[in-house]
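Repro case for the chain-ordering regression, as requested:
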Amino acid sequence: MKMERLVEIAQKFPKKLSRRKLLGGAATAAVAIIQTAKGQTIQKGLSENLIGDDPTKKFGKPAGEVGSRSPFVKSVKKPSDISSRSPLQDFYGIITPSDLHFERHHAGVPAIDPSKHELLIHGLVEKPLIFTVTDLKRFPSVSRIAFLECSGNFRGGKENLTPQEICGLTSQSEWTGVKLSTLFNEVGVKPNATWFLAEGGDAAVLTRSIPVKKGWDDAIIAYAQNGEPLRPEQGFPVRLFLPGWEGNTGVKWLRRLELSDAPYYTREETSKYTEPIKDGKYRIFSFDIDARSIITFPSYPQKVEKGWIEIRGLAWSGRGKVVRVEVSTDAGKNWKIAQLNEPVLDKAHIQFRHLWQWKGEETEILSRVTDETGYTQPTLKQLFEARGSEGGYHMNPITAWQVKKDGGVLFKPETFR
Amino acid sequence: MIYNQKTSIKLSLLLFGGISFQACYQAMSQENSTEKYAIVSKKREISNDTLPSSFGFGRKATQVEIDRLDIDVRPDGKGLPAGSGLAAKGKLIFDAKCFACHGVGGIGGPNGSLVTNKAPVAAARKEKTIGNYWPYATTVFDYIRRAMPFNEPGSLTNEEVYHLTAYLLRANEIIDENTVINAKTLPKIEMPARDLFIPDDRKGGPEIR
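-- result from build under test --
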């Protein structure tokens, strides 16, 4: 807890709230500061509560079966008809709370009884096998912290957009399951198998073709997320998890894998999840998520005050580790290396931060990431130059925030059409 | 474990801090057992690295079990069932079950057009349809059978799916009204968008693609 921030808060409420009282209730005061970032109303509400209610004078809530979120924390996903976005601006560290993991499904979330769910692996294999969920859990397990991002994760066009609205279709969990390579060994994948079809048990019976190589490399048949069984929205009881690849390929509610010597050209990999490139062509089987970063603090609709501000954000790459994040506080004229908080994991969201002393001038703040392949996050203009200006999937442009004189923060919409 | 519980109950009765005492006690005993385990695991480390050739988990899938789930269709026609379809019959099904989402004649519905609109459109972006964006006709059959109609997925017979496939191909002017669509003819249809796609050529590195 930064002393000057506490003092700052105390100075805002000099009559009602003494500095001593704030320091005494350090834990609650921390919540007040966290909420500063989100707006004045919440901050005031909290402060009044601090005065009226002294938790040291009242026996608290008894121990319970399931933990709860503080009633002072309002962190929610933003649902549409087909998806729901993670509140990136509310997160600390790198793990997305499971109930705030983004959702994207194509025919709703199925209700699956795990005792009746099975995974069939067949096609170009020596032994076609059926595994129950219990069977899958008997195999050697693997756990990995990695991000999952929908490739259709870009919104722009107006100033009043939050990080959640711009790119909330990305989240990070620790995924636990069995390596697909272990199951490939068990069924005996034939040498002429080059692709496999993954099929979900939802009402869309969603299918994607995946190169067998990814299955041997690092694919996981996941049954757990952040220490508990998968949430239904994330594929309970079993899903495919492909580190670094577009979310749609990580087929949820997985019921079948068929080994094949050719891709299937399913609807999800032809009519959808293909994106325009130059000369009237479209890119197909674009699996890797390109490196991306976004400043999550400060961002719309937060307001900042003059003085020291720790700019914070998330950065990630589907091709490996993040090696560098740069931050500009003068609209892209100069860039400075941001601090990366450990752990910096492979194909994972990482947290960056950069201290900035804001003197009240109008400016723009931006971040850009470079991954271990040497790829640097492009501007929207660079993306349009490379692919044409239709937009589409796999858009990962640098995101700029305008900081106004009054401390207001607005997204900077860009168009180059 | 029994001893542990008894101890903590006693302590809880005696002391207010009974719960935290129990926690400490357990943590200490865990530490001891971890130490012992570390010695054992060092010895076993080498042999544990090698997976057996088979774990023997799971059961063999019978052909009946496979057939029950194996509904996919490939561009080469692998997976297409018996049956056949005609555009005229497909139109009747479409007008009953599909037009509410996809528009009259497959144009302009709330869930997207399936048929290319030949009339000049004011819309900024041309709609992607089966006629101008789907590279393989087999995908039409596969997708309708697995996921449509949206409110009643998987309810159509193979014959109905063939009829609808024929209708949508006809509406997009890819086949004529007399073409019979079946397992032999469907894979041979050359779609207008066949050569529209190129496999991902992004490789990482400094180039923006």
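Ordering looks correct now. Residues 44 and 50 of chain B are 11 Å apart (CA to CA).
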